[in-house]
Amino acid sequence: MQTPLIECVPNFSEGRDLGIIRQITDQIETVEGAKLLDVDPGKATNRTVVTFVGPPEAVIEAAVRAVRKASTLIDMRKHHGEHPRFGACDVCPLVPVANITMEETAEHARALARRLGEELGLTIYCYEHAALTDERRNLATVRAGEYEGLEDKLKNAKWKPDFGPAKFNAQSGATAVGARDFLVAYNVNLNTTSTRRANAIAYDIREKGRVKTVDGRPESKPVLDANGEKVWEPGSLKCVKAIGWFIEEYGVAQISINLTNIKVTPIHIAFDEACRRAEARGLRVTGSEIVGLVPLAALLDAGRYFLRKQQRSLGVSDRELIKIAVKSMGLDELAPFDADEKIIEYQLAKGENRKLLVDMDLRDFVWETASESPAPGGGSVSAAIGAMGAALAAMVANLSSHKRGWDERWEEFSQWAEKAKYFHDELLRLVDADTEAFNRIMDAFRLPQASAEQKQARKQAIQAATRAAIEAPLHVMQVALDSFEVIEAMAKIGLPASVSDAGVAALAARTAVMGAFLNVRINAKGVEDKAWIAEVLARGEKMQAEANARESTVVQAVVAKL
């Protein structure tokens, strides 16, 4: 069973004293299994967003230790900042990352809330998916009145905390603990210093919108419904919360946006809508910033979105897509945007402490292959060759997509390039998968065999590892064979000047199939299930024959055009 992972994103009401912030985050790093990913302090907001991830038990323990330290170091009586807040640890949400449901995450959030209330004696409210009542699902409702109104709020029985004392703690205030979807904190920069104008745009776009007035002017009398309540005019974007503020350290006003569901409203849509609304009010968006971490998919989607607007091929590398997203939204206007630090998947990969073959430069990969170690071997090299072939096909498609005179065909070639990108990315993954499968066999052979039970367990482990070492190159064969679809198309309809590249791609794809099949065959000898092996070998022979035929057809077509 795979380990469940959750993310914790506590927001501490201190963004200026780095010594205090470090003492808090140090507590997180004392817990084995909890990985600190990001610390993002803001001077104007006087608030630090911390992100760490791990198994639920480790994350909860790290959160308790960090909040305990924060409650002793931060004094809310002295706190001032631009962001709404009501406690030293203002909010502490848990977010499901992998192998865990939202319902399970909510239960963990309630367990954390209970510990903070009972062990630390803090005033705790549960919100969003962890809320114990529907009235407390919305964080803005829970935090209404902020720290300054908290003492009076706690005198109202309606606002008895979910955990901890209903007594005002002047130093620590209160904390909201929740379970929520991945939230992206995103700020859009404006060419103005006016908070009022930034707020106007925020009200235009946020889901809640603004209070409706009799003549449409903000200062006019509000429209009331039959119950005497104010009528609200919804904004243009769903799952968006936003306010305007002035950031003194940058000297500009911003629209501070919380994207609570980026599947509903992605970052790039929020950016473009803010641009449109700003322009309508005589303002201009100059850039933006992401606070904390962001999922890789969010930036890849943004890159594709802006490339599509330019009518450029989308089948480019992830790094290129990220660069397009950063430049299009001005994510590097206020500070450099480091993808390895800001993207959650890249942060997690840094903590794996293993050097992947695909992360080596070409010279190191060749040298590693040439070393006395038996891995990487023919399987990994076959996958790498196949990836190069698919990459050549992607190159031809990308070049074709912006050939002068072929402008109306950009989308056609973009689709081919995206297919090729899938193939070369999958084959790159298989470079390491093949070596990992080989290493698994070696590990199985090293298992003890002192007793009959150990011998049987060792035998079963060897058989399972050997099957995996067959399935990896078999998958290389299939993906490389599938890549012929793009290679054939590029040889036929791609940029004439690059037809030789399509030919080389065909040679590489065939080599990948043939080489991977040799790996299948040598490992087949060690499998006891002869019926399964017969089926695998028959499938492999069929794929090999098809690769030979398709490569020959492509090369003949290429040579005829030279």
Written account of the structure:
By secondary structure, this protein is α+β, with helices and mostly antiparallel strands. The protein has 3 domains: 5-179, Formiminotransferase, N-terminal subdomain (Formiminotransferase-cyclodeaminase, Chain B, domain 1); 184-348, Alpha-Beta Plaits (2-Layer Sandwich), CATH 3.30.70.670; 357-561, Formiminotetrahydrofolate cyclodeaminase monomer, up-and-down helical bundle (Four Helix Bundle (Hemerythrin (Met), subunit A)), CATH 1.20.120. Helix content is 51%, strand content 14%. It has 18 helices and 13 strands. The chain has helices at residues 18-28, 56-73, 102-118, 139-142, 150-154, 195-205, 267-280, 296-310, 318-329, 339-342, 344-350, 362-370, 378-401, 410-445, 452-482, 484-493, 499-524, 530-561, and strands spanning 5-8, 11-12, 35-42, 47-54, 89-98, 123-128, 174-179, 184-190, 210-211, 232-233, 240-247, 252-259, 285-291. The strands form 3 sheets. Strands 1, 2, 3, 4, 5, 6 and 7 form a 7-stranded mixed β-sheet that branches. Helix 13 packs antiparallel against helix 14 (410-445) and helix 16 runs antiparallel to helix 17 (499-524). The longest helix is centred in the last third of the chain and has 36 residues, at 410-445. The chain is globular. It starts with a strand and ends with a helix.
